[in-house]
User: What shape does this take?
Amino acid sequence: MKSVTFSDIVRVPEQARRTSSSLGSPQRLAWLALTLALGLPALMYAFWQLDPGAPLAYIVLPILAGGLLPTLTMMPGRFEVTTRFEACHLVCTLDDALGRLGYAPAERIPGAVRYRTRGGKEIAVTVRAHALEVTGPVPALRALRQQMTR
Assistant: This one.
């Protein structure tokens, strides 16, 4: 793909507040909250039992960071695929790449396509004259960029 360029992946925090699809369904969000609420204190207590003399901040801060940072990677991101020719011709290539990642087209309307996995993760594509704007979870966008550059 000589005449195609990819922008960097940037986070889209305002969209994360508008939609909960980045973390999944409300039931999945409840399970995540319950796991974090019970699991992180249990880990802290277990590590404190191993070394009761250690300052509590040395135990609590790394466990909180390790438990909460993975949820930040699920925040939605965005990148653009620009081309010299009509961007609608790239949709077939995008279909193939997303199909290899486990996404299937869920909705097609003029100028936009939505893809979903069985787990409920969603990628939205806006088709403009010479660019595709792709929005979805950051790890999925990274994998998509790798698939499309091959």
